[in-house]
Design brief:
alpha/beta; Replication Protein E1, Chain: A; 3 domains; 7-stranded mixed β-sheet; 5-stranded antiparallel β-sheet; 38% helix; 22% strand; AAA family ATPase; RNA binding
């Protein structure tokens, strides 16, 4: 015996269709064109007439023209998503005293059934459709004014809006929280792939809400990604794929050390982008410099103090061929930066002399780790560490008659642009990006 599924009679329906004549079967194109260019009220009244001619009774009817909705589309030229305005369309919400099936209603109106939407089950189904007319619960959509809604049957929409505004606002918060929980898996996936930074999450409204509701999960994802990135950096260093670039920038207060460093960071990020790599930077505080470090490729230690780290930690951090965990004070964070920029009002020798627990540490161990010393005053002075041979004093008890020392020489005095170019050339050579 064949079973026939009984189609349900709807108590309400939302009609959504572009205001283009080709989508309206059996309609006079002038009515559709007038609705697109002028008021939609005549179109709504005509739809009600068609429905009620088929023994239906309409108790409420509210319509609005959406002409400011946007959609994101992929631009093949710029390789980015761009926003385009959607084609002008109508949203018409109809409530029935006596209704019909969705398929029959579509036939009465002259539309395909896919352009008629049933209310979701539950006590708020119709209420949600009322709110959607103006996107009252959708922060990410264009907010239409309740005054734009045309009331043809039932209580005036503006009156309904004023009655429900508070509950709709609460409903929006509930919806955003629900969507935030749904999107956390997507965010975690993007974090683990290195496609999104914490700054981007905190500065993006939708992602920020997701983070607020799932902070521990997301922070754990960043910790895992940081550990992975550190291990990859270690492997790359051990395989000789690159060496770290270490810059020390000195100058008086107000000389422009920070501005110059930020310019370098911007240029370095652009170079990485050209290599299809996505680099981030961390700008540390003068004290407790690694509290905010999470494995970024560029570490900018702005106006840091020499005594903010021990001598041992400085030597580990600045070793161009090794990535080592730094002290337990910073939870053994791995210094996996590929370029480190230090700025200070002190010269490099005085700076490292002040490092904690520095008991007769050979200053040469610090100097030889630097790629370039930049001194900013009226011009840019660039110096490079040079290895020199020093003979021990005669009659010394030391078996070693000679040892090497490192000094800065070959100083260049150049303008900002040439200073940037010279530093970037050193960086590119160290990264083996030729």
């Amino acid at each position: 015996m064949t079973n026939y599924k009984k189609l349900s009679t709807l108590t309400c329906v939302m009609v959504v269709q572009q205001l283009e004549p080709e989508h309206w079967q059996g309609w006079n194109s002038k009515i559709i064109d007038d609705a697109r260019n002028n008021s939609i009220e005549p179109l709504i009244k005509e739809i009600i007439k068609k429905i009620e001619e088929e023994d239906c009774i309409v108790s409420e009817a509210y319509g609005i023209k959406h002409d400011k909705d946007e959609i994101s589309v992929w631009d093949t030229q710029t390789k980015t998503y761009i926003s385009n305005t959607k084609t002008t369309h109508i949203h018409l919400l109809i409530k029935f005293e006596k209704g019909a099936t969705l398929e029959n209603l579509a036939s009465y109106i002259g539309l395909e059934s896919q352009y008629l939407e049933k209310a979701k089950s539950g006590r708020y189904g119709y209420d949600n459709l009322l709110a959607y007319l103006i996107h009252a619960k959708d922060r990410d959509k264009y907010p239409y004014s309740p005054e734009e809604v045309i009331t043809v049957r039932g209580e005036n929409y503006l009156t309904i809006y004023n009655q429900k505004k508070e509950s709709w606002t609460k409903g929006r918060a509930t919806k955003e929280a629900s969507e935030a929980n749904l999107s956390v898996d997507y965010l975690i996936s993007e974090i683990l792939e290195g496609n999104i930074s914490k700054n981007e999450i905190l500065l993006t409204d939708d992602y920020y809400k997701t983070y607020a509701l799932n902070q521990r999960k997301i922070d754990d994802a960043f910790s895992v990604y940081t550990e992975k990135k550190g291990l990859k950096t270690i492997n790359a260093l051990e395989n000789g794929e690159f060496k770290k670039t270490i810059l020390f920038i000195t100058g008086d207060s107000g000389a422009g050390k920070t501005v110059f460093s930020k310019l370098l960071i911007s240029k370095i990020k652009q170079l990485a982008k050209e290599k299809n790599e996505r680099w981030e930077h961390c700008m540390t505080a003068s004290t407790n410099p690694f509290d905010e470090y999470n494995g970024q490729e560029i570490l900018f230690m702005d106006d840091v103090r020499g005594d903010s780290l021990t001598a041992s930690d400085w030597l580990k951090l600045l070793d161009p061929y090794t990535v080592s965990p730094i002290s337990a004070r910073y939870r053994n964070k791995v210094g996996s930066a590929k370029i480190i920029i230090i700025s200070s009002i002190k010269d490099s020798n005085s700076f490292f002399y002040d490092s904690k627990n520095n008991v007769n540490e050979d200053i040469n161990q610090f100097i030889r780790r630097l790629d370039i010393l930049v001194n900013i005053n009226d011009v840019y002075h660039l110096s490079f560490p040079v290895k020199e041979k020093k003979t021990t004093q005669p009659f010394s008890d030391s078996v070693e008659k000679e040892k090497y020392i490192y000094t800065f020489s070959n100083e260049l005095m150049i303008d900002k642009n040439n200073a940037v170019r010279t530093i970037l050339e050193t960086f590119i050579n160290n990264m083996k990006w030729r």
